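Hey, I was hoping to borrow your eyes for a little while. For a while now I've been wondering how a particular protein folds. The fold is given in discrete form, as structure tokens running alongside the sequence. Could you read through the record and tell me how the tokens relate to the sequence? Take your time with it, there's no hurry, and the full record follows here:
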Amino acid sequence: MKEYRADNIKILDGLDAVRKVPSMYIGNTNVEGLHHLVYELVDNSVDEALEGFCNRIIITIHRDGSVTCEDNGRGIPVGMHSSENMPALEVVLTKLHAGGKFDKDTYKYSAGLHGVGLSVVNALSEYLEVEVWRDGKVYSQRYEKGVKQTELQIVGDTGKNGTKVRFKPDEEMFETTEFSYETLAHRMREISFLSNGIHIILIDERKAKKQEFRYEGGIRSFVTYLNTNKTVLFTDPIYVSSAKQAINYMEVAIQYNDGYNENIYSFVNNVNTQEGGSHVTGFR
């Protein structure tokens, strides 16, 4: 019988655990997990938008297979973290369960992996380069496979705020590293509908394609879009919203057509809950 001793207990430091079992963090290492990396970056930018600090997100698929996500939010903090003795930016890039989402005074709403997303993207990337525009300065740092290659440094002056992250998924971690423009466009359209007024730009340098998403009608416009080319039974969707204590907020839009199939799309904090949940059951 194989022995099981104290020495068999392994401790994985830093981001080693993510590279050891990536599917535990992003679902799988196939197409879905690959695109999940982009969603994590976009979700961080959307969280800034929901707090009123960001109104534009630009996603670019580059010819070398890397992706850049850029926003005009506040910029990830770069000051020294009091307990970790490193810049806050480095903390969120290298430490699991680190981020502003755990502070209720910083974010009322948040999507994604809650303090894990950016560090997971870093861990599963061949390289990751980050630029932060904050306090009149441009800050830059580079990582490879989650390991710091340069110290955080000031590389210029700027009059804008925001964060730009460029990463290339690690071929050792994924079954495929080719991003689908159509898959990303579908998700960016959803996010634009759900985040009323946010301007999302998707660029694909490989195919010289560009698409912009900006919808002012929220989920009412979403329902109208879903019923495009269908015969609807009434022009304006039924719309109901409710808020409790400023942080619990729900909205529902319904529009019937002459078809026989029921299509329900449900989201929590902008994340598509494809299998429904108590929120869908409760509404029904």
